[in-house]
Amino acid sequence: MADQPFRIVEVLYPGLTQLDFTGPHTVFSRIPGAETVVASEPGGAIESDGGLTFAGTRRMADIPSCDLLFVPGGLAATDVINDLVFMAEIRRLASSARYLTSVCTGSLVLGAAGLLQGRRAACHWAWRQLLPLFGAIADPSRVVRDGDVITGGGVTAGIDFALVVAAEIAGEATAQALQLNIEYAPAPPFQAGCPETAPAKVLAQVNKRMAAFLPERTRQVEAAAARLRATG
Amino acid sequence: MADQPFRIVEVLYPGLTQLDFTGPHTVFSRIPGAETVVASEPGGAIESDGGLTFAGTRRMADIPSCDLLFVPGGLAATDVINDLVFMAEIRRLASSARYLTSVCTGSLVLGAAGLLQGRRAACHWAWRQLLPLFGAIADPSRVVRDGDVITGGGVTAGIDFALVVAAEIAGEATAQALQLNIEYAPAPPFQAGCPETAPAKVLAQVNKRMAAFLPERTRQVEAAAARLRATG
Q: Would strands B53-59 and B44-47 be described as parallel, antiparallel, or unpaired?
């Protein structure tokens, strides 16, 4: 890395899924020579899911540029893709970034910004099918790399994703040291982490709950996709 | 579960490792019928590692009781075990709890409170050997259950731990649905997550960095252990 710190801008918005952000942040904030900037469109305190509020985020407009842009997901991701001020800031920061990255439905934000056209990208399994509306190719892998675009699947995929990013920008040995530091030798008590391995009853129950959100989220994605087609 | 929400009190302190807390919080905050209370001794904003600040924590003294007490770890865990006001609140809340739980060096806090005497407990691999100073039996497992004490290993073990806890208090199907929701089908890019599998050079490097902290942390644990023997 160069003498200047490698600047990672992490973009929060109200209603984000905090673990999409906090998993990668743990890794990113420990990369030697990197600087993490926690940002949001208004700046200040941002409330995430589960009632957690992060204080003191920086205003996106006050950040001139970044080396890596990172967008976590959340149920509210399809709200913010229709917030024109937020999306203008995403596009501006993306234009300066060497890497564009996301976890979970954060890839819908990159997609809505027109940054994934013809690119393979990951997304949370339940929302992955929305990516092609932005011209992206939905990839079911846990971490997907397509050139300078690195994306992770749902929520906890952010830890795998962040280690891939750490290896890319700081080398494998550094990424492995970070993995050892956070004792990342996962041992899930159940094999229910993806639709292919979850018990059928559990999958049906989760799908039923997700289905309640699907019409409105699809409508929001379609609105953003129409705007993208119209503008560029 | 009963009609009353199952109250989970999560105890923060300055310098905690935020992923120790945010991983389990994601699971706990989604358990139907459970209520999560994010607390700290002074209340208000608490700064964690990596520059993240959590706003609006509740004052421990204002929380009359809990069903489950959860203590995350962090480099500062061995500071707070010598904070007598904090430790008195830990003991008071623990006395009302059905379950005592921790992740990472959070088990040193439970130990210093005299809650692990003769009990098996997990801890971050680099600090596990300090547990016996509090009369606990250090267990290298990722999640350890000994009666009503459920503890997780270092940092990311918190997700495995939280799913075990969710299954205990809300049933396996609920824990599996939560696992599917957070797409927890981990796929680490390297096998460096514990000393047994990490490359020797990486382990040596991390051990060297940890060694710099060891004398002071050991001294802090010894001071707390002496106090425990004198009073308890």
A: antiparallel
Structure ipTM? 0.96
**What is the spatial distance between Cα A47 and Cα A45, in angstroms, rounded to a whole number?**
7
Identify the three-state secondary structure at position A36: strand
Residue type, A17: T
Whole-model pTM?
A: 0.97
Q: Say yes or no for a CB contact (<8 Å) between A190 and B45.
A: no
Tens digit of each residue's pLDDT (9 = 90 or more) over A28-39 = 999 999 999 999
Q: Select from A155, A178, A181 the residue whose CB has the most chain B CBs within 10 Å, as the one to mutate to test that interface.
A: A181
Burial bucket for residue B82 (CB in 10 Å: 0-12, 13-18, 19+): middle
Contact B160 A186 (CB under 8 A): yes
Nearest to B217 by CA among B138, B114, B122, B130: B130
Exposure on the CB side of residue A28, measured as CA atoms within 13 A: 27
Residues 6+ apart with CB under 8 A from A120: A136, A137, A138, A139, A144, A146, A149
Assess B49–A contact: CB distance below 8 Å, yes or no. Answer: yes
Annotated active-site positions of B, please? 104
